[in-house]
Amino acid sequence: MDWIYLVIAGLFEVVWATTMKLSHGFTKINFAIYTVIGLFLSMFFLALAVKKLPMSLAYPVWTGIGAVGSIIVGVILFGDKLSPLTWVFVALLLIGIIGIKITSGS
């Protein structure tokens, strides 16, 4: 269950990053509110995950999910353009996240 909490926390990391962009510097109040809610939920689920998971595993996985998820959202929703080499490094991030889970023994 701890890893599920961690994945949920990472997904909310993507939510708050996306809604922060959509808030246009917190000038659009509805998206600013969603950002704060996303931040809270991300931290809440991260806190649940680190009750049992080591911080040295949970934190990099959490940030990795947020990073990869935000890249994907940026490309799909905002039309961000990434070079093929950048995609290689995104894949390496994803491989690192999966590797941490596989080798953690949790």
UniProtKB/TrEMBL annotation:
Main location, first listed in the record: membrane
Subcellular location field: Cell membrane
GO molecular function: transmembrane transporter activity
Species annotation: Companilactobacillus kimchiensis
Top-level taxon: Bacteria
Entry-linked PANTHER family: GUANIDINIUM EXPORTER (PTHR30561:SF0), SMR FAMILY PROTON-DEPENDENT DRUG EFFLUX TRANSPORTER SUGE (PTHR30561)
Family: Belongs to the drug/metabolite transporter (DMT) superfamily. Small multidrug resistance (SMR) (TC 2.A.7.1) family.
Gene Ontology cellular-component terms listed: plasma membrane
Keyword Repeat: no
Signal peptide: none
Topology class, membrane: Multi-pass membrane protein
Protein name: Membrane transporter
Annotated transmembrane regions: 33-50, 57-79, 85-103
InterPro entries reported for this sequence: EmrE-like, Small_drug/metabolite_transptr, Small_multidrug_res
UniProt keyword Cell membrane present: yes
Keywords, comma-separated and alphabetical: Cell membrane, Membrane, Transmembrane, Transmembrane helix, Transport
